[in-house]
Amino acid sequence: MPLLFLSDSDVAASLSVDDLLESQRSAYQAVVDGSGRFLSSAHASDPDTGALTYTRSGMLADTTGLTVKAGMVQPLNTARGLPAVSAMILLFDPETGRPVACLDGAALTLLRTSAGLAVAADELALDDAERLGVLGSGPQAEHTIRMMTAVRPIRRTTVWSPTPAHRERLVERLRGELEGDIVVGDSARAVVEGHDIVAACTATREPLVYGEWLVPGQTVLTMGSVEPDRREVDLTTTLRSTSFVDTLAQTVESCGPVVEALQSGDRTASDFTEIGAVLSGAHQG
Prior knowledge:
Layout lengths: L3 E3 L1 H7 L2 H17 L2 E10 L6 E9 L6 E7 L3 H4 L4 E8 L6 E6 L1 H19 L6 E5 L3 H13 L4 E5 L3 H11 L6 E4 L3 H5 L4 E4 L18 E4 L12 H6 L2 E3 L2 H7 L1 H9 L7 E3 H5 L6
Parallel strand pairs: 1-6, 7-8, 7-10, 8-9, 10-11, 12-13
Antiparallel strand pairs: 2-3, 3-4, 4-5, 5-6
Helix pairs in contact: 1-4, 2-4, 4-5, 9-10
């Protein structure tokens, strides 16, 4: 069988919103029921450019063979007019071990991440949550806003990022497409305060969300804290929160806020619950 190659547009066209959301629900549950195997993770960062190079591998024991992903997040690409996220995904046949497909992983990375955040928000946020605050204005933020509106009736969305032109452009692009209002916030704090769900979609190394801004009942989601020294939220946020993660084994080693909380001595690994446990009913959430 010839190796199948799927471009970014092929991948995006083949996946509906429902497909993406269901895939993430299944993946979260596979982590806790043992059918999903997270095999390896490695990364290297460039302190001069902020670029992150990474590899991931894993498999769903009952349905797939080995899946390997390699990619880079290069913040400087934005100024070059290129996507910040680049990746390739290689799939292997579960019986023969032969490679069967190679996918451009840029679109899938954005879509999968936003779907994962949306599933988590749907499970963890209060039933009447309808105000969304988003930190970031790139493609990840845009996909996240769309996914959130697919799982919750978002009445108002507020967007902030450090570059005014970028956040204004995103809001203008989505205005009229969303059923609820979408506006530009004048600060990170304005996106956090008064919002039921806060989604941080950045690659920052310094916190943008501070625990002193939060009130009980808010749900804070982070996606960019993928290295021990990257933290979208401060330590107070983590210590004030009931915390959920996608895969505990990975996050205790590489997720900045989790690593910081463990190093502080105020949290242990048992204080963090995998989202799949909520989806399976093993944890109340």
